[in-house]
Amino acid sequence: MEELRTRIARTLRREREAASLSVSELARRAGISKATVSQLESGAGNPSVETLWALGVALGVPFAVLVDQQANAPTLIRADDIAGVPSSAAAYSATLLSASPPGARRDIYLIQAEPGDARRSDPHHPGTIEHVILMAGQARIGPVDEPVLLGPGDYLTYAGDAPHIFEATAPGTSAVLISELR
Fold first, then answer.
1. Which residues form a coiled coil (predicted)?
2. pTM of this prediction?
């Protein structure tokens, strides 16, 4: 998790400065406290998925930009080494597996979730489509008004630029989520 915090700190500061925003202005636009932004930039904070999404939207960059490793060499992520970003609202974490390279518009995540509160997502950038392949467990996924119950091996695609939900209904639920911007 320490390496992830360091990456987030470095990238957040770089993107904020590139946008010519003060810490106060970024905090205001993201709807979070100035102290939270300062902590994250110093590598001391533990951001939630919601906080990083809000910062990404405020900066005009995808979530993936804030957490990607930006490595040129082959990347191997062992299941036992996964360090996801937790949700503050549900037993849910998202691990960026592959960020979209320049000129492309897709990010790949490994989602791990447990039964309890659903992970509700606000609309992402216009034109975002999400693809989900459920690997284990069971979950209600998709548009808030019409989620679909998925089992292992099921695939679902839906508009990510409308409110949507991921609600694990069985322990040990995991999925691959591909976020695509068209």
1. none
2. 0.57
